[in-house]
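Task: encode each sequence below as structure tokens.

Item 1
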Amino acid sequence: MDDKQLRDGIEDDIQNAKVNGARHRRTDEIQVVEFLLGEKTFAIDLFDTKEVINQPEITPLPDAPPYVEGIIDLRGIITTILDLKSMMNIAGEAKDGRRSRVIVLDADISHKIIGVLVDDVLSVSTYNESVVDRDHNEGRNRLGVIRKKARGSDEKEPSDLVILVDIEGIVKRIEDTL
């Protein structure tokens, strides 16, 4: 599957999940967009996203904070691009020469259109709230940790851990600097 097919598939997943989720959103489930930063998997709430795009040419902004990658023209709208790895102090590059992508956030998150730069977008997933450990949200960028079981695994096998990022909280904290 090429990049365009993958991106289009994720775009379709986001739109379908939002439409269906708006009608049937259950309080015991969470829908997320999973992505890579370095070699680790993170997620943000699906309803905090608008779309996923391939990394466009980004115009740097003079005197911007280090986490502001720059701006892009997204179909006629100037969009600020934030470097999520820089904001969260995550080092390392993604394996396999993955291409960076931008997750454009929903307009309800901020007074400006904002995108966050990530190493790759993996999927749109639905989890039962019972696998979200909200006790591990002591960091100011986290809402919790998702214990993601491999398909067909049992309780004895270890879970992959996915950090659930508080993207709305992050944006609200830095909004005045944008």
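Item 2
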Amino acid sequence: MDSVDNGVAFNLIMLGAPGAGKGTQADRFAHAHRIPKISTGEILREAVQAGTEIGLRAKAIMDRGELVSDEVMVGIVRARLDLADAVRGCILDGFPRTVAQAIALDGIMIGRAPLVVVDIVVPEAELVRRLASRLVCEACGTLAEPDQAACGTCGGRLVQRADDNQAVVLERLDVYKRKTRPLVDFYSARPTFCSVDGAQAPDRVAAALETAVAATAERGGGAVRRALR
């Protein structure tokens, strides 16, 4: 899988608990295959920084470690998928988070490219360690790499996100298990579903992701297989 055929579209959903590395792997895959990554977290943070009404509502919810409502998230994703750069497909990072959102996404995807679904699996103890120790840029929201003294993107100050303190981390993982984990059951019977061990080093996860998506495409039929050539 060197690149995606520019004439063929497909869509990739990244599943996994907070801290599983979905964002990092989505960035890498998007760059390698020349398709846009659509991160609902980034969309929401942009709204928070802009001080919009939906941004202020979302900030209060996210600071408590809770999920933004399905109605709001579906509307955000629908609008984003209608933009020109998503015509060939995209990587969805952070959506869907609930079965209701997944059902809504199936409706949005009617007439669009097929979905490949990847679950990045990491043990809970490792998730807590990662989340409680990670830093983000105060200015642009970029996640910092280990041992960084300042943001590698804009040079901004690194801080702990309000929803990354240990108490909120545990709440976020509990919310994930109750509301988002059922997505694995929702998608697991589909021929385009696969899982990847996310507890490995990032390069190993990326390699495993490529292999898993290729194998999933073989099971999923010609449309996805052609898109991944």
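Check on item 2: Residues 11-122+180-227 form a domain with the Rossmann fold fold (CATH 3.40.50.300). Residues 35 and 90 are 5 Å apart (CA to CA).
End of task.
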